[in-house]
TrEMBL record:
Record lineage: Bacteria, Bacillati, Actinomycetota, Actinomycetes, Bifidobacteriales
Gene Ontology CC: extracellular region; plasma membrane
Pfam annotation, one family: SdrD_B
Assigned protein family: Belongs to the binding-protein-dependent transport system permease family. LivHM subfamily.
Region (Disordered): 140-175
Gene Ontology MF, one: L-valine transmembrane transporter activity
Protein name listed in UniProt: Branched-chain amino acid ABC transporter permease
Domain SD-repeat containing protein B: start-end pairs: 57-113
Biological-process GO terms, alphabetical: D-alanine transmembrane transport; L-alanine transport; L-isoleucine import across plasma membrane
Main location: membrane
Signal peptide: 1-40
Domain of life: Bacteria
Amino acid sequence: MTAVTPSVRRHRLGLLLLPAIFALLMALCISLTSPSLAFAAEAVPTCNPTATNGCVNGILQDANKQPIANVELKLSGKESATTTTDAQGNWAFSVSADGTYTVTMDESVAKQYGLKAATAQVEIEKNSFDKARQVVRFDKPAPASASSSVGGSTGKAQSGNSGANGSTSSSDTATTTNGSAIGANIGKRIWQQLFSGIIFGLVLGLMSVGMNLVYGTTGLSSFSHGEQVSLGGLMAYVGTQVLHWPLIPSAIFAVLIGALTGWIQNELIWAPLRRKRVGTMQQMIVTIGLSMALQYTFQFFFGGDIKGITKSVPASFNLGPVTTDAPTLIAATIAIIVIVGVSLFLYRTRLGRATRAVSDNAALAAASGINVEQVVRIVWILSCAMAALSGVLLGIYLNGISWNTGATLLLLMFAAVTLGGLGTANGALVGSLIIGIVADMSSLIIPNDMRYASALAILIIVLLIRPQGLFGKQQRVG
């Protein structure tokens, strides 16, 4: 009898397992390509848009602006789901595919509460998912082309070519109307993206100015500055959703926590390292480790999902060709006021002039009687407080904050600081506006996930032409 060697035994076992492995892989492929999994919206209590999901949501109210609870709403389109309004009338769907969606309620409910429509349609675009929060309203008549019941009347499908208004028209008229609509839509998108870029640039400037002040006074490029942004947003979430404070006290609480962490960092880490004359390169490596530690600390305590600072959906309105809401305008106004205040502090106060002197030449400033350590301590406190405030404003603007929000924006901060000129506060603001506008406008022609790459490309081009940045001073070597 011939003995079976171990290698032959393993070979036979592999042949026996091969069909089972193949069948398992086929079952996995079929399940992943199943339509039931590929086209499934989700009914959620609150929806926060990200790069992978958009939001279709709203607050159901009657004619007197009172919430309507326990009403069933159905979402149809590329994805479908059903939800019920809560006690405040809130409802939300999270969708993963772009397209036109229809939200429908029972006609009797619409009649009972005096609503003008039982059906509403919205259109959502995938290349703007991270800002797409489509608010659905039932106090306006639905489009005439809707095939379902609208406001208690039965709509019928039109025969022939349907124009932009749902009326029957010739093919030439339809082509002209559609062409005009497309042109108007492109123009509106350009203005909308420009507006979004300015708002994003102002909030980014609030982060970058503080980072540039730290670099100017210490020579340190802090990789943990992004985590100060995340900390501010998460502390605002704690204030509003955990402690149930109003938004303004929660924002003040977040800024104070940010300022406190700036003071603690300087006293426990950076001041001892400076006294030991540790080089800026070694300190920068410490900031990388601190960044990683803070990120995973945030993830441990707050989880990996997006945290909404506010639960209510703000009412949108048109400002010329731009659609916006009150919180967005308030966030932009606060950013402008704080940046102007920091500029006045630097150029009109004694401490601000001392800060600029330390930034220009720390040794000469110390020889002239300026307490350099005190200036650096104040800069750390101010920088981290501004970063925390920007985290609050960013969480309101983007409808949520997560454990790694600041880390995703860190390269854009460095790009803005380098583009404007290292060590110049005003340069950081201008660089942030350029980066913000270019990033948002580029999503008109390239995928939304690549919009930050275009901003970094602009940075490279500018540095090839002007290495010191737009407002930096050219230094002579040798």
